[in-house]
Amino acid sequence: MDRPSLTLGIEEEYLVVDRETRDLVRSPDPGFLDLCSQTLGDRVTPEYLQCQVEVGTRPHASVPEAIAELTDLRRAVAEAAEAFGYAPIAASTHPFAKWREQTHTRKARYDALREDLGHPVRRMLICGCHVHVGVEDDDLRIDLMNQAAYFLPHLLALSCSSPFWEGEDTGLASYRLTVFDALPRTGLPDPLASWSEYRRLTEHLVASGCIEDATRIWWDVRPSDKFPTLEQRVTDVCSRVRDAAAVAAVWQSLLGFLLRLRTRNQRWRVYPATLVNENRWRAQRYGAEAKLVDHGRRRLAPFADLVEEILELTLSDAETLGCRAELLHARRIAAEGDSAARQRAAYARARREGADDREALREVVDGLIAEFRED
After folding, report:
1. Is 292 part of any domain?
2. Which range marks the domain in which residue 163 is found?
């Protein structure tokens, strides 16, 4: 078996806000997306809701190369938005916008989703970040998916950016997952023995008339149906591009580490979904401030300690892959907090300075606009 390429590509979804009101732009001027497309071509696409836009990088050999392109994509979207009085934010929920006020993009696929999924899909006012890593061998892709599922909560905790929903603090660091988990075929993947078993599963659903194709399986990690990649989908979209770089570096380096174990005839233990889901919930609830279960020791451990363990496991792989600096930034997120923590801090600061609730939430949006452009 040839060693997989471990190339990576990053997809991000953004919300488009009105610079004056800081609310979402319900129906952006068609010229906005046209202007984005003139600069970015097929690297930018509309999303389910008209107030959203998605970008995707080309495949790259290293995280720094992918992040350089992602930075250019963010810059181009921000410049196009500015021409229309808009601004993009990279947050998985808007602090105060109402989902009932949004309009979905008229596209056959989206129309079919609305008809098939009903009310839950209307609430999908959420954005995520997906990181693809090239694993060309089909069976290896499934084997790595089974093992890597253990680390999905850790990735989520690094990325949380959705504490507010319709003007309320939800008490969660990632409310996005609460919304997304209302859809079918989400959450952790089934442990599977081989690519053939995965194909039998997907073909069963297709033959039964439940789904059109495997793209309708929205697990937290899945084999991409379009590319020979293993795609992690659990993470919120990061407000700052350097935090997105850390998420990408952790994902790529973890897969490099699992491959290195394989060369020693070793593997990471596959834990029951209930145990991994416990950490998924704790990451969703507390983000980078979480204590997650160290399942090997059967105890709760501060997330910062678990990040140190991940760094110890993967640092040599990150050096080989050329993303050492980006991987080490995970330590800073664990120490200083994620976007959810910064959003709450901005809200609390504005209230202390005399702002009312609505004004404080607008301050949160202003912070997100600034973070989108700061790198």
Report:
1. yes
2. 8-373
Asked whether residue 58 carries a pLDDT value surpassing 70, the answer given is: yes
> Helices 152-159 and 273-286, interaxial angle, to 10°?
10
Per-residue CA distances from 80 to 127, 128, 299, 372 (Å): 20, 21, 49, 14
> Is 1 part of any domain?
no
| CATH code for position 336 | 3.30.590.20
- Distance, in Å, from the CA atom of 63 to the CA atom of 72, rounded to the nearest integer, reads 14
pLDDT in tens, 333-353: 999 999 999 999 999 999 999
How many Å apart are CA 176 and CA 13, to the nearest integer?
13
For residue 109, the one-letter residue type is R
Is residue 235 within 8 A of residue 128, CB to CB? The reply is yes
Q: Is 192 left (phi over 0), alpha (psi -120 to 50) or beta?
A: beta
The tens digit of pLDDT for each residue in 8-27 reads 999 999 999 999 999 999 99
Is 185 exposed, middle or buried, given 0-12, 13-18 or 19+ CB atoms closer than 10 A?
middle
Within 10 A of 100 (CB to CB), how many other CB atoms are there?
9
Domain count, the chain: 1
pTM score of the predicted model: 0.96
Does residue 2 fall inside a structural domain?
no
Q: Do the domain assignments include residue 368? A: yes
Bridge-based pairing state of the strands 8-18 and 129-134: antiparallel
